[in-house]
Design goal:
- This protein is an alpha/beta fold and about 300 residues long.
- Helices cover about 30% and strands about 25% of the residues.
- It contains 9 helices and 15 strands.
- α4 links the parallel β8 and β9.
- It is globular.
Amino acid sequence: MRKVSFAEFGGPDVLRLVDAEEPHAGPGQVRIAVRAAGVNPVDWRIREGQVLGAHPVELPSGVGLDAAGVVDEVGEGVVGVEAGDRVFGEGADTYAEFAVLSAWARMPEGLTFEEAAGYPSVVETALRVLREVGVRPGETLLVSGASGGVGSAVLQIARDRGIRVIGTAGTANQDYLRGLGALASTYGEGWTERVRHLGRVDAALDLAGSGVIRELTELTGDPGRVLSIADLDAPKLGVRFSGVAGSVPDALAEAVDLISRGKLRIPVEKSYPLEEAAAAHIDSRAGHTRGRRVLVV
């Protein structure tokens, strides 16, 4: 089978499309014929060799956590799913023609494989950061870097929970944020004053790692109400960094519920073939994404 792999840490040029042995489902796992794989910032962070304790790496390594596809192997002890089922979920080395998933759910009606591949890690992260930052119904949450996958999910889930949201993003994505129910503001000089004009901020999330931790702390007045998933130096400023996943099966179940109720939709900004994984990483790292980027197999 074809699989994207890297033998050394480095830039996107270390990625190679190689021939590899097919993986097989172990106990509690399923294997899928991958139709699409989600491209997440954690993918290129791992490829660069950033120290992410939750994702230890042995070289050579495959790439990718999220995928959607068709089940073709069911591991020992697995019930409720069979060959031929269309599922999306999280596993390992998903930039490949076949991948093993450790958590999955049946795809909601109406979703394409490309759309479904963009949800697993994104929704788990969104649910986790909302829980960890402690924002409650009736409060206002500021989301820095709100137009990407996690931001798109955070805004919609927060609104569904009765939380007021302010999102910051580039000029081109202001209407997109408003369409997700957020008050929108741009980056750049004077951005904190523009946010203040939108009202009180009770909690804040840094999803882009753009060096705004100090400003977010000033806006909330409490570093304990600020959380980052993108700035590894956040703890040096008294702000929590969240990088360890919670329950992916629970997140997938909530994603299915939200999608089925019409409360969550994350658009696919661009799709790439497997051989263009490096280009997908370059674009993901550049930011300014509206929704998700995925690889199509």
